[in-house]
Amino acid sequence: MVKMKAGLYISEKNVMTGELDKPMAKSGEALIKVSFAGICGTDMMIYAGKHPRAKAPLALGHEFSGVVVEINGESTFKVGDRIAVEPTISCGKCDACLSGNSHVCRTLGLIGIDWHGGFAEYVSVPLHRLHKVPDNLSDAHAAVAEPVAVGIHTVRRSNLKVGDTVLVLGAGPIGLLIAMTAKLAGARKIFISDISPYRLGKAKELGFIALDGKNVDVVEEVKTATNGIGADVVFEVAGNNITANQMIHACKTQGQITVVSVYKQPPTIDLAAMHFRELSLTTTRCYTHSDFSAAIHMMATGQIDVTPLISHQLPLDEIKRGFELMTNPEESLKVLFQPSL
User: Fold this and answer.
1) The pTM is what?
2) Residue 235 burial (CB < 10 Å; 0-12/13-18/19+)?
3) Cα(159)–Cα(93) distance, rounded to whole angstroms?
4) Do the Cβ atoms of 327 and 43 come closer than 8 Å?
5) CATH of the domain at 188
6) pLDDT the model gives residue 1
7) What proportions of the chain, in percent to the nearest 5, are helix, strand and coil?
8) How many independent structural domains does the chain possess?
């Protein structure tokens, strides 16, 4: 078998550059030469040894772009097409899939978690998971289509209306993308909280009201700025017990909370405070095919610019450094690997 370079998860907090067999495109698949692949929060969960499905050795990476080098089956795509990969794989048979909601499939899997992903020179991908990248969208930006789709899906799942006040708890890449999308959706005032000065600085650069959770009372800051009312919509993207309670108390009466985080530990929250003020709670998972297409279009047309989010571009040989950077929120936002280097 022909070998290829791959960035492998080996064990808890242990990644390395190694080799895998170069995949072949099976029937209904395309072989993709990877251009760029990004580290996601889920990859960090795998790196920490806390993901229930990811099994080592595994080439991580579910956020990636590439070029079609082989097609096995009928397709509108052709060899040489630049693409972004929608990494979700659904069963097509469960109630969710049959009702058109394959993104919440009972057995939903992701390339890069359940199968080898984009931290490799080549990946074999089902043809229906490919999205063509327009000429005016760079390969690096196309690799960020997946988290952009998360931001779009999250805002679409909310009840956000033009003129609303928004609070985003967490200024990582997803939090910032949600804030950017909320602005496009018509939010008039957007607060975003974090405890990282670096990430809060990014939030300020993007025009949001940054709240330092270490030094201010986030709930009181939002209430003071809204005459005691609170935010119309709160997006919880930090995933800890502190923000789980901030989302309740910073939300206005009859407002909406949208939970994006996947909690490592179940939070303890004040349900009574939700009950007495008729707060609505919505959750969100992944994105739809439409969200992913919208992400590519909105980046290509300049409506969403991910340039400020890409903090590092590294060769795959520096996979250890990439994960070390991502463990420190004062150094990084979105780290991309370029396997061809």
Assistant:
1) 0.97
2) buried
3) 30
4) no
5) 3.40.50.720
6) 83
7) 30, 30, 40
8) 2
